[in-house]
Design brief:
With 94 residues, this protein is mainly α. The protein is 80% helix and 0% strand.
């Protein structure tokens, strides 16, 4: 999550430091910053919603819940990693 924030900050600085930036490029960077926000938000939503079942619950139900949550967090992970890689590529462009 720290990386998401760091790259968003760098991209916003890139926009702020280039007032003569072509509008299409500016929109592309703003879109990238929004995607970084979305990935961060997806993680927060998942974390807020994660509520492991108590030990007293049937083990099969607990396993099903955890498997479902595993699939959800894998999607969040994939979104986060993809977004970070795209941001890195953008930041490293001349």
């Amino acid at each position: 999550m720290d990386e998401l924030f760091k790259y968003k900050q760098i991209i916003e600085e890139k926009i702020a430091n280039a007032p003569d930036m072509i509008e299409a490029k500016k929109k592309e960077l703003q879109s990238m910053a929004a995607k970084l926000d979305s990935a961060d938000n997806a993680m927060r939503v998942w974390m807020h919603g994660f509520n492991p079942l108590p030990d007293s619950v049937d083990q099969e139900k607990a396993r099903e819940y955890l498997e479902t949550e595993m699939e959800s967090i894998k999607k969040v992970r994939d979104l986060t990693l993809e977004t970070i890689e795209k941001a890195k590529a953008e930041i490293n462009k001349p």
